[in-house]
Amino acid sequence: MPAVVLFGAQWGDEGKGKATDLLGDQVDYVVRYQGGNNAGHTVVIGDQKYALHLLPTGVLSPNVIPVIGNGVVIDPSVLLSEIDGLAARGVSSERLLISANAHLIMPHHRAIDKVTERYLGKAKIGTTGRGIGPAYGDKIYRMGVRVQDLLDPGILQQKIEVALNEKNQILTKIYNRRAIDAGKVLEEYLGYAERLKPHIADTSLILNKALDSGKVVLLEGGQGNLLDIDHGTYPFVTSSSPTSGGACSGSGIPPTRLTRVIGIIKAYTTRVGAGPFPTELDNEMGEWLRTTGGEYGVTTGRNRRCGWFDAVIARYATRINGVTDFFLTKLDVLSGLETIPVCVAYEVDGVRYDEIPMTQTDFHHAKPVYEDFPGWKEDITGARSFEDLPANAQSYVKALEKMSGARISAIGVGPGRTETLQINPLI
Ligand code: GDP
Ligand code: IMO
Ligand code: MG
Predict the structure, then answer these.
(1) How many CB atoms are closer than 10 A to CB 180?
(2) Is residue 66, in this structure, part of any structural domain at all?
């Protein structure tokens, strides 16, 4: 009954899509447990490239049942266009199950996300503008509209009217925007209901029964550890729990059933949006990493901020999530460098920190303490076992493993399915 969590161990975009896809033929269910269409997960299969936002990556594996768990916020128009886009490429989403308890992103969530960011000015978070924060806000505020409400037009109408009664006041009186027409929203969402109905299910019940009968469930996170609402670089975070704890609350699978926690981690670091990033390289080197690694947002197209590997945040990910295995991605991007600095600790006002400082203020002032590792010149994209790697690449990986606190069980040397070195089995 293995239930395996796969999550991002940095600030997102670590290569979760590729890692999930790689395990596609060893699992029966792939469950997204939080986030929404702020995520952009890339999968490269042969000459085909897919960018998934709401659909679990398992949709690309014909024998996997993809599940959108209760912890996800769903923009139905985006989900349906994603389903249609895949259908046009011959990929069926017929097997998709959607939790009746997942929340819906409504037009007022998108409107409020955009306008509040504008009002924050310099203090803005740099959100994806997809309505994620306001949708989770209303969930916690107990004013959300859930997937199951699509099944009862009377309740749906009531919930939309109650929400818009308040939100229209905010939109018109605080932000000087136009009010949203409840009737039109109802009509639009009833249209989505027709198409989504066959997919709506009690997914927690289905998943627990599947585990009872020995099936393998993979829980696929969006975003990453440092974007977690509790454990991330608050307030520069997303509004959900991408950490392994969130995998349980976001799927209805209890912690006692988790058998493995796989942290996806890049051989360097990136971040999109605002917030602290101690190893950021705001210079030519950073630009080189961006260009060589293709570090441009899958969802918003924004440039990703780039920097060296940070072992302090890797250790932090191990601690918060109970990482059993790391999947180290994009090692190939570092080929050709003379030396590769790795951040092993921070210095704040002359004091050394081996762990993330307790306060936001100190983390903002953290200066990386670097240790230099010798690079390698060889192209490693053809490597298929650890022994195929040049000696310096092997030493780099071994050093990261030692500093991160959990074994590295797989290494990515290219975006394709086969461009992976498997050291230990992941399932
Ligand atoms: P996710 O959000 O964690 O799924 O990651 P993204 O898809 O946003 O970004 C990761 C990018 O790196 C994608 O373009 C992947 O195709 C690519 N990628 C994943 N693993 C590797 C790897 O090992 N090497 C290289 N060169 N690219 C990779
Ligand atoms: P994947 O799953 C990287 C960032 C945004 C912003 C912050 C809050 O592809 O790794 P939100 O719209 O969620 O309220 O924005 O979180 N962010 C991501 N950064 N990868 C992602 O997803 C992200 N999803 C959100 O850039 O800084
Ligand atoms: Mg991404």
Answers:
(1) 18
(2) yes
Parallel, antiparallel, or unpaired for β 29-32 and 65-68?
A: parallel
Q: Structural domain of residue 296, as residue ranges?
A: 3-91+202-422
Q: Which domain-ending residue is among 153, 180, 198?
A: 198
The domain that holds 139 is classified in CATH as 1.10.300.10
191 and 278 inside one domain: no
pLDDT band at 16 (very low <50, low <70, confident <90, very high): very high
Kind and range of the H or E run holding 352 = strand 351-353
Question: In this structure, which residue's CA is closest to atom 27 in ligand 1?
Answer: 415
Alpha helices in 48-181 (DSSP H): 76-88, 107-120, 132-140, 153-169
The number of beta carbons lying within 10 Å of the beta carbon of residue 25 is 10
d(CA 286, CA 280): 7
- Say if residue 124 is in the same domain as residue 208: no
> Which residue has a Cα nearest atom 2 of ligand 1?
13
Residues 273 and 341 in one domain: yes
pTM of this structure: 0.98
Last residue of a domain, one of 169, 198, 227: 198
User: Residues 165-216: pLDDT tens digits?
Assistant: 999 999 999 999 999 999 999 999 999 999 999 999 999 999 999 999 999 9
- Please choose, from the candidates 244, 243, 219, 217, the residue with its C-alpha nearest in 3D space to the C-alpha of residue 232: 243
Give the model's confidence band at 98: pLDDT under 50 very low, under 70 low, under 90 confident, else very high.
very high
Cα(290) to centroid(ligand 1), Å = 12
For residues 262 and 378, state if they share a domain.
yes
**For residue 31, is it left (φ>0), alpha (ψ between -120 and 50) or beta?**
beta
pLDDT digits (tens, 9 = 90+) for 43-87: 999 999 999 999 999 999 999 999 999 999 999 999 999 999 999
Q: Give 223 Cα–ligand 2 centroid separation in angstroms.
A: 6
